[in-house]
Every structure is written in C-alpha cells, then in structure tokens.
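The following record pairs a protein chain with its ligand, 3-methyl-2-oxobutanoic acid.
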Amino acid sequence: MIQNTTRYWVNLNNKRAKSPFCIYNIFKINEMSEKVYIFDTTLRDGEQVPGCKLNTKEKLELAVKLEHLGVDILEAGFPVSSPGDFESVNQIAKTLKNTVVCGLTRAVQNDIEVAAEALKPAKRFRIHTGIGTSDLHIKYKFNSTREEIIERAVKAVKMARNFTDDVEFYAEDAGRTDNEYLARVIEAVVKAGATTLNIPDTTGYCLPNQYQEKMQYLVNNVPNIDRAILSCHCHNDLGLATANSIAGVIGGARQIECTINGLGERAGNTALEEVVMILQQHKDLGFYTDINPKLLTAMSHEVSDVMRMMVQPNKAIVGANAFSHSSGIHQDGFLKEAQTYEIINPAEVGAEESKIVLTARSGRSALAHRLHKLGFEYTRNDIDELYPKFVEIADRKKEVNEDDLKEMAAAYKK
Ligand code: KIV
Ligand code: ZN
C-alpha cells in the first residue's frame, strides 16, 4: 500500500479546477464583448453530403435539438428542391419556438415564393437568396454580365422582402470575387432590403488573411454596410474553414454559418463546435455566442448517428481522441496538472473525463493512475516491479486494457 506519496499519484484525483493558476477561470466574460450569431446549416449544406439525406422526422428531431443547443438561425433546407425538403422546412417552421427558421433559394421568383410558403408558419423566418458573383460564375454558370447579376440580385432581394423583413443575401463564390465588384453588389442588395450579407468562400479557396481583408474591405467601402450584418460561410477544401471564419469575424463579420461535425459539400463546412470553442477559449478577442457548449458532444453524436457519418477520432472538440493522452511525456504532465496538455476541460463540452490510454509509450505514472482507477493501490516500488511486465504486454498489444491490468495485478503477489 502507498506509504510515500510520489509523483506518480500526486494528481490522481485530478486537481484541475482547484489550481490557483487555472486558465479556465482567468477570463470573465468581457462586458464589452459582442455577440456572434450562429447560423446552423447542418440540415441544408450539411445534408448535401452524399449518403446523409435525412427524412422529415429525422430533420425535425435534429432541428429541435439544434434549437436547444442555442443556434440563432437554422437553415432548414432548400424548399423548392423537392417536396420532401419543402415538407421538412414546413414542419420545422411549425415547431421551433425561438430560433429563426431559414430557407435557401436561388435568385429566382418561384424559389422565393415556394420558400416563403414553406416558412410561413414560423414564429420568425428568414429567406436566404443569392447568386454567383465571381467572374467564373457569371461567365460559365449564368452566361451573363456583372451589371446583369447586380440587377438579378436586387430583384431577388426585393421579391423576398415582400414576404419578410429578414432577408439574407449570398454572393456565391465571394471568396474568388473581385472585392471592388463585390462591394457594389453588396451596396445594391442592402439598398434593396437585405439585412444579412453572406460572403461565402464557396470553394474553400481563401487564406485567412485574404478572407479577413475581404470583410474589412466591405466594412470600409460599402457606404450602407451599417444596415446589415456580414456573415462568414466557409468551406473546408484546404482545411481552412474554421480559421477563415474566425478571421472573418475579426475582419467585421458577426455571423458564422456552420455545421455540426463540419459536415458539408466536398470537404465540408466550418464546424460549429470549433468556432464556438475558439471564441470561448479566446475571450480576449471580445466575442461570445449563445451556444451551450455542454451540449456539443451529445449534439455531435446525435448528428453522427442520424446522418450515419462517423466523426474522425482526431476531430477537434468532439473526436473520440480529443481528450485522450497516450504518450508517456504527455501522460506524466497531464497527471501532475491537466492544463499542461489540455486547454479545454472535457466537462465544458459535455465530454467524458480525459482518458489515459496505455500503450508501449506510457510511463509509470500512467500505469499507476490506471491501476488506481481500478482500485489497486501500489507503492512506487510496486509500480517499478510491475512496469517491465506492463511493457511486455504493451509491446504485444496495441493498447493495454482493464482486463490486462487486472490479470497483471492478480499475478503480482504482494
Ligand atoms: O457555399 C455556398 O456558397 C453556399 C451558398 C448557397 C450559400 O452554400
Ligand atoms: Zn456552402
């Protein structure tokens, strides 16, 4: 039994929250901090992933959970695209109580009328209309001109305003749209009544500084920009969706469009859980969201199950390994003080407590910790004697599990 308290078990009870230097307690919500609106598009852009098609019942269940999570705006679908999508948007519109329910349209009269019809029962609804603005889209998708695109954009926004005061305009492929022209489009649609301006990096092309500068350019060069909110909508083709969204907020945007688990077209969209936790961790940036972070893990599991899309184990915030430690150096530091290797307490995002995974790279402190969790109390000398056997098992197996530990303990006669 333990006589000498050694470094192996000094933190077996995980003193993370009691440390006077606990970084989790350092920042209080800055009274000057500004809200960033969370626009969830799991049920629209997220659902565009091959194999992730949901039926109305599944969509409705997720929508209720997303409202509970605290999303401000929920993009429920693209009503004109199919009777099933119309029905889902309509059911969600009838059910949600606080969240703004949004429907996507092209800059086409019929799309807008159908979306308005589907959204009509909602307490609060938004029509999200728009058109491609990059020269590539103008030439190849629309065989049109820059001036004609502005006219079509303005017409669509005015049409949408006949149904609601809450109209969001998207300038598709804004990431590759010339800033000067983009500013002209934005000025015109704000004049026509758009209240939110979505600046999508549709192809995930921008670098964070470019996306930030694009937002800053619009803030500085669109005379009526103060009448609307700028929104980030970033795709992850280069793995930059989250970084770009945060850069966009720093550049002046106050809404982020995102999906649970980063689901979406091709490489996906910005992951909701990532941007929420970045703004939470970096309070010094001066922003907050109304998302309840404690529900993030459960929400991720729910979406993964319903959409039948596994979450990669190393996924930030919600991956199975997000709070696992397997190398001896990390485990030793973590057991002395959790903050040495963790910037988020798993409880903050509703995850199970951090795991110490036993592999051939684990050290004595990790072994002592896991044995202690199973109720075996050993001295440092005991652990020194047990360790070679442990390494032998670990070399044979990828991971030493509880049964292996119990067997080791039973064989160790003391
Ligand atoms: O990525 C994109 O540009 C979009 C728009 C339709 C908003 O999803
Ligand atoms: Zn998109």
